[in-house]
Specification:
Largest sheet: 5 strands, antiparallel
Number of helices: 11
Strand content: 15-25%
Oligomer: single chain
Number of strands: 15
Helix content: 25-40%
Structural class: alpha+beta
Length: about 350
């Protein structure tokens, strides 16, 4: 018997660990295996009379999980992915465990469960799955739920295991300031499921695509000015992006350093900041008296009619009522009144 420990890339959750273990179990001679997505390690005990270390590594590398090993050994165990017979683009290997939960029953006879099957990654190709035999292809319309990356998809799913789509993710972010899989999924589901190797049509972990969707939602889509608010909570600095809105009661600040930054989103999605009203005098009373006397609220840099997003951000820090909060912005605000109410 021989024991090896492998570094395995691409795992993000328990479902990923289970998928790798299921791959290893397909081999003869395996006595024990323990795969951890937290450590990115797999410990395997096997009988060398039935299976070799090279075969175990090659088996794992057939999937989208990869064993981290020297470059020469990677080339030796690299599997060849055939091209899609329709669009001629190289796809990706998928575990055969996904088909029963993702295909309509009428399409089951098209799948040969004894061989390797692949998914077409081309967004503009109507093929969902194919095999090296090229006898049958599975059209994207033969799936129970749409592939999120295919052109014409109406409902973009971020998590197939829990059936949560892009609009639900957007709603959780905009209304409840939830930003991660661990925050958003339990918001919608009392019982959270993680069975990507069975329920995700790619066999990949849902979390990776979920994170891409949340990142996309968090990036402003317009080119309007956005104020960059910098909060300092007990030496911990938290950045927040906030759109301009309206506000009332003016709170004048004296003898503090106030720097307002404005942000524009260019055509490439990059942020460019310009500094203005950067006041460095020790006494700002005369300056701010002039500014507040001559300028309406909406011209004072940063302001907001609703403090809901700011209050949520403060609440997430779980500060005590006696904590010091520095709001490093220039403008008018009723936030202090709201904090006193709470």
């Amino acid at each position: 018997m021989k024991i090896i420990t492998l570094n395995i890339k691409g795992m993000t959750c328990d479902s990923c660990s289970n998928s790798v273990e299921n791959l290893i179990d397909e081999l003869d001679g395996i006595k024990f295996r323990d795969v951890s997505h937290i450590q990115n390690l797999g410990k395997i005990e096997f009988n060398e009379n039935f299976v070799s270390e090279e075969k175990i590594i090659a088996k794992i590398n057939e999937s989208h999980y990869k064993v981290d090993m020297p470059e020469k050994q990677i080339d030796k165990n690299k599997s060849v992915i055939p091209e899609c017979p329709v669009c001629s683009q190289k796809g990706a290997s998928v575990p055969n465990t996904i088909f029963k939960s993702n295909l309509i029953p009428a399409s089951f006879p098209k799948i040969n469960f004894e061989i390797e099957n692949y998914i077409c990654k081309n967004p503009d190709c109507n093929v969902a799955y194919y095999s090296a035999e090229n006898k049958n292809t599975i059209h994207k319309d033969e799936l129970k739920r749409e592939l999120w990356y295919k052109s014409g998809t109406k409902k973009v799913l971020g998590c197939y295991c829990n059936n949560i789509d892009k609009e639900q993710i957007r709603n959780a972010y905009e209304k409840h300031a939830l930003t991660t899989w661990d925050e958003i999924v339990p918001h919608y589901r009392k019982k959270v499921i993680e069975k990507c190797d069975l329920l995700n049509p790619t066999g990949y972990c849902c979390r990776e695509n979920f994170d891409k969707i949340t990142d996309e939602i968090k990036v402003p889509s317009d080119k309007n000015h956005h104020a960059k608010m910098s909060f300092a909570f007990n030496n911990e600095k938290i950045q927040s992006e906030s759109c301009c809105s309206t506000g009332n009661n003016r709170q004048k600040e004296n003898n503090v350093v106030i720097k307002e930054e404005s942000c524009k989103i260019d055509d490439k999605g990059s942020n460019s900041y310009s500094s203005k009203n950067n006041i460095e005098q020790k006494n700002y009373k005369e300056h701010w008296d002039k500014v507040y006397d001559k300028s309406p609220d909406e011209k004072l840099g940063w302001y907001e009619s609703s403090h809901e997003q700011t209050l949520r951000l403060i609440a997430k820090t779980k500060l005590s009522k006696n904590a010091d909060i520095l709001i490093a912005v220039a403008g008018s605000t009723t936030l202090i009144d709201e904090l006193l109410k709470n």
